[in-house]
Amino acid sequence: MGWLFYTDRRVKSYADEKAEITRLCTFESDTRKTELVKACKVGSTWYAAAKVTNLDGTPVEDATYVTDPDGSITFGAVFLTRYDDGCWGYKDMEESAGPNESRAPLGLIELLSDLKDPDSYAQDWRQRCRDWASIPDYKEGDKIRLATPVTLTDGSTCQIVTATHYKRGRQKRRCYRIEETGGLVRLSKATLAGSELLSSAKGAASPVLAEYLAGRE
User: Fold this and answer.
1) By the 8 A CB rule, do 102 and 62 touch?
2) Of 32, 41, 72, 215, which has the fewest Cβ atoms less than 10 A away?
3) Which pLDDT value is given to residue 12?
């Protein structure tokens, strides 16, 4: 499906976008209604959970989803969005179509109905969302071993790095200090998938604190 654009320029803010996502996930036929349960924006992509119920109160029968105890089903949807010449546009896709964008928060994934086919595109999409959410959010001073060496622009590689930051104006930007050279490198979140924490900054403050924190893990 192609991009759909609004030409009246009414979609200009986060609140406007959420209102449009809500509208797009809300409709009613003679027998069923669909309503938005939750929507989250990650980057320029909106993720939505939409609930379908039968107006007569009977359970919803669906080939993809297991009916929930209340008789409804809740499915996931992805809305790619962008602005073109000041106009907001979107491209939507239901989870069973296997969207490429897969960074939906776990809180949204947990709202979705179970799937009948364990090998479906939707199941794969949900797992990729879970995999993304499982990537650690390292703290300042944490020493990390990457799952695989990263090749830098000069052709060298690095695998052990320490989380740190640099300043650009008044803003602090996350980067990583290379163990072998002391140089700094920016790493994407995807690069941190499968990485291992070698030492924690919170435990390095003092031996007493480290022992206390170790006992709580």
Assistant:
1) no
2) 215
3) 84
